[in-house]
Amino acid sequence: MLKIFDSTLRDGSHAIKQQLSLQNIADYCLEIDDVGVYTVIVGHGNGLGASTLNVGLSKESDCIMLGEAKKHLNKTKLGAFLIPGFGTIQDNLIPAFIQGVDLVCVASHCTEANITRQHIEYILKEDKEVYGVLMLQHTINDEMILEQAKMIEGYGGMGVILMDSAGASLPNAVRHRIAFLKEHLNIPVGFHSHNNLGMAIINSVVAAEAGADIIDGTVRGFGAGAGNCQLEVFVAVMEKMGYPTGVDLYKMMEISDYVVNKFSSKEYGISPLNLISGIAGVFSSYSTQVEEAAAHYGVDPRDIFIEMGKRKTVGGQEDIVVEVAAYLSAGRTNIKKEE
């Protein structure tokens, strides 16, 4: 049966500037535990060790968040997310396992799977589940993504999850790519979508139709930028199409209304800035930094995203936001002088 990975308490943290409270975590885990999702992934939006001034400080530490979640999860696996460079084995994975983490998603840019080897092999040695994640998967071709996925398979990864980190993918491309990887890999394939172009639900549905074994999303679509695949909607669509998910839809809908809705007063949807990041193919989580830099330098935030797209910016390059804003500001100033 299709496995649902729930990233509401991870990707959703981006939506409120990493300020999830322990009460948020406790309330959510208590309710989600018997819904039927395979794992609940908890922590900073960029994973273990990512709480920094550069990408945002979490309200609580990784260990405290994971420990609180574990208290309320009896039927559902506790998951963590790690990007090598933010997180390390000694400082982050070992403490996470002490807190009871059962499963880890180890992520890299889609051309850098080689940096995940040490972490994947260590997690396996600790007898935990581990999945490789390839971010911004839309930026490379089939042969390249297969090469990277084969690395993860070779390291012992128990699955490969493709992240449409910019929400830039369209359904036909997703269908083709999932089917292509399913044909050439011997491990499960998953898909994690963002909604910048309004494609998160349909992309997740076609991924499942094409054979995806894992769909990663969030309740209420709570996540970076325009948000993620809204799990309760995805489950409803799959059930309507005759694909059982094993998820209690009514219960998940109640969690959406009475738990996630209390995390923030912000209205979610596809803002113009979310849309432009999807068009530009730039990581959704840059929205806050782009807005701040645009205001500081007096430039249009949409132009920042477009220029970042031209520069093929990937995750973890927050310094480029300011560089681009300054570049655009200087260019505008020069134009005014010439006029």
Write structural notes for this entry.
The structure is a single chain. With 339 residues, this protein is of the alpha/beta class. It has two domains: 3-262, TIM Barrel (Alpha-Beta Barrel), CATH 3.20.20; 272-338, Helicase, Ruva Protein, domain 3 (Orthogonal Bundle). Helix 4 links the parallel strand 3 and strand 4 (103-109). An eight-stranded parallel barrel has the order 1-2-3-4-5-6-7-8, surrounded by five helices. It has 14 helices and eight strands. Helix 6 (142-155) crosses helix 7 (171-184), helix 8 crosses helix 9 (231-240) and helix 12 (287-297) runs parallel beside helix 14. The N and C termini lie far apart (64 Å). The model is unreliable at 335-339 (pLDDT under 50).
Structure characteristics:
339 residues; alpha/beta; TIM Barrel; 2 domains; eight-stranded parallel barrel; 8 strands; disordered C terminus
